[in-house]
Amino acid sequence: QVQLVESGGGLVQAGGSLRLSCTASGSIFISNVRGWYRQAPGKERELVAGLAANGSTNYADSVKGRFTISRDNARNTVYLQMNSLKPEDTAVYYCNAYPRPYLAWGKGTLVTVSS
Fold it and tell me: What's the rounded Cα separation, in Å, for the pair 23 and 64?
């Protein structure tokens, strides 16, 4: 069974930075884990950043210029570098397949950005 483990979240002040990591294992489809999603309190889960197989990236408008997605294919690890964090970035961040998040969701990692 697929296991997605997100890490790197925490409490950070506005303007600060965090780097999230996602390790994927236990599934033949883990190579498709190329996306970051987030769910803010009271909101639906949304795509934050996606990395297509051809290397192209797709970012939510709200994070363009601030977040960068990357992947270490050998380690099946996906990263999300988050800079210039804003309070509205506060959410639980998840990784999953991209562009369709068809794998079982992990626990996510909580990012809290204070003013």
Answer: 23
CB 114 within 8 A of CB 13: yes
Instruction: Quickly list DSSP for 55-83.
Output: S-EEE-TTTTTTEEEEEEGGGTEEEEEE-
Q: What is the pLDDT of residues 67-114, one digit of tens each?
A: 999 999 999 999 999 999 999 999 999 999 999 999 999 999 999 999
Contact yes or no for 84/67 (Cβ under 8 A)? no
Q: How many residues belong to the chain?
A: 115
Alpha-carbon span 85 to 30, nearest angstrom: 28
